[in-house]
Amino acid sequence: MVSSDDENSNGSSASSTASRGYINIENLMYNKPYAAVLDLRMGTSSITVNTPEHLYDYITQKDLKTTTSTLGFRVTAYILKDSQGNVTEKVVKPHGKVLAPHIP
pTM of the predicted model, to two decimals? Predict the structure, then answer.
């Protein structure tokens, strides 16, 4: 829901905190128990300000083995469910991480 403070003169919504450098996130899965989920990482590098310097080479090599550096995004996981909520397909971090069996 967008408050009147967050509406531009053209009627489109915009965050009033955008000028302060914040990103607002909404939980799009709320109240949708049978939703399919996609974990999409965006950016041309996985190195962040919190990344220890000794991991730079490892992370750079991982980025080069995925679509991160060439396309600017990578799919790290997805879960598909049928209309009854049963998992029909699950792929989690195919770049060498262990599958997470606790994820429904």
Answer: 0.49
